[in-house]
Amino acid sequence: MQGDLVAVGILSGNRNFEGRVHPNTRANYLASPLLVVAYAIAGTVNIDLDKEPLVNAMRVAAQLQFG
């Protein structure tokens, strides 16, 4: 953690305990592979993937469809 920044890990496997990914990781979440990729593209876990589009570095939006 640096300042107010909290490092977060999102994994699709069951090795999601604190310190496993990196010693500075303070929050770990278990998710499906699709969600892991979606949060990686978004660059944040602070997004409602049901309502907000993902936007890449070129500002191109993409909406995920679940189900």
TrEMBL record:
What residue intervals traverse the membrane?
none
Q: Name one GO molecular function term.
A: metal ion binding
Q: Pfam families, per this entry?
A: Aconitase
Q: Identify the Gene3D superfamilies for this entry.
A: Aconitase, domain 3
Question: What residues does the Aconitase/3-isopropylmalate dehydratase large subunit alpha/beta/alpha domain cover?
Answer: 8-43
Its keywords, alphabetically, are:
Iron, Iron-sulfur, Metal-binding
What is the protein's given name? Aconitase/3-isopropylmalate dehydratase large subunit alpha/beta/alpha domain-containing protein
What does UniProt list as this organism's lineage? Answer: Eukaryota, Metazoa, Ecdysozoa, Arthropoda, Chelicerata
